[in-house]
Design a protein that fits this description.
Blueprint: H1 5-9, H2 12-23, E1 33-37, H3 43-51, E2 56-61, H4 64-71, E3 78-81, E4 93-99, H5 108-116, E5 119-130, H6 136-147, H7 151-154, H8 166-173, E6 179-191, H9 196-202, H10 207-212, H11 215-232, E7 241-253
Parallel strand pairs: 1-2, 1-4, 2-3, 4-5
Antiparallel strand pairs: 5-7, 6-7
Helix pairs in contact: 5-8, 6-11
The chain binds S-adenosylmethionine.
């Protein structure tokens, strides 16, 4: 089961909100070249293009399914398939924007300074990553992955703590940034429909795990996960499910 743009976009407005909150803090007036790293289905690259219409905007992602969805509606944006762990631009750019993607990569202590090195002087690195890994939505994934007959296969794929402490990013970015903003926001989403938290993580956190499971194992895995989530996330009186999601933001200027 590769990345599925339809599943991901099921919570589009909730997922878009932090992306726009990040963009609102980028005080770049003129840009010639912009990249959206881990662009997914491409809706944010389109927003970047409308904010800086004269800029060459490139969306980069590893998932062909995501890139196909992105390319279908935006011919004025370049789409590139690449692994972000190896990606580098052809020339320095004015803005590197990465919403909800860099937590899929390791070695942030070297990754973040390296990305700063791809900017033009005065350019910006703008990043948002989830910091929800200690909450029930994520802990239940780890619990079910460890408990079933699939544990040996899934254990190496578990990303229990992929985002470091804010102070770590401060230490890695301060030496190369003339200006730096870091902040964290806890969003309270009110999700609709049955088992909505499982539907949410199915579009993101669960993708590599579902891919590693045999088809016959996916149903039992999801059933155990949903059972844990029902206890942790009961619907409110209106039938909607409150879902706290903490996100960490950085805007660094070279
Ligand atoms: C949660 S989605 C975010 C998509 C988009 N930035 C957004 O905010 O809507 C994460 C994206 O990162 C991509 N991704 C994850 N690891 C990657 C890697 N190593 N190289 C390139 N893309 C990667 C996935 O394919 C997916 O499209």
């Amino acid at each position: 089961m590769p990345w599925d743009p339809i599943q991901y976009l099921r919570f589009n407005s909730e997922r878009l909100r932090p992306a726009l909150d990040l963009l609102a803090q980028v005080p770049l007036e003129i840009a010639e070249e912009i990249v959206d790293l881990g662009c997914g289905p491409g809706q944010i690259a389109k927003i970047l293009k409308s904010r800086w219409p004269l800029a060459l905007v490139t969306g980069v992602d590893r998932s062909l399914e995501m890139l196909e969805q992105a390319a279908a509606s935006a011919p004025d944006i370049q789409w590139r398939q690449a692994d972000l762990a190896e990606w580098r631009p052809d020339r320095p750019v004015d803005l590197i924007y990465a919403n909800a993607s860099l937590h899929w990569l390791n070695d942030h202590d070297t990754l973040f300074p390296r990305l700063m090195g791809y900017l033009n002087p005065g350019g910006y690195l703008a990043v948002q990553m989830p910091r929800n890994f200690d909450r029930a939505s994520h802990q239940a994934v780890f619990e079910v992955a460890e408990a079933g007959p699939w544990s040996d296969r899934l254990r190496p794929l578990l990303r229990r703590n992929p985002v470091a402490e804010p102070e770590d990013y401060l230490g890695w970015l301060s030496p190369c940034a003339q200006h730096l903003e870091l902040w964290q926001t806890d969003y309270l989403h009110l999700l609709e429909g049955p088992d909505p938290v499982a539907a949410w993580t199915k579009g993101s956190l669960l993708v590599p795990l579902m891919e590693a499971l045999a088809e016959a194992e996916r149903g039992p895995f999801l059933a155990s996960y949903q059972r844990l989530l029902r206890a942790a996330y009961p619907p409110d009186a209106s039938g909607r499910t409150p879902f706290w999601f903490r996100r960490f933001f950085m805007v660094a200027q070279l």
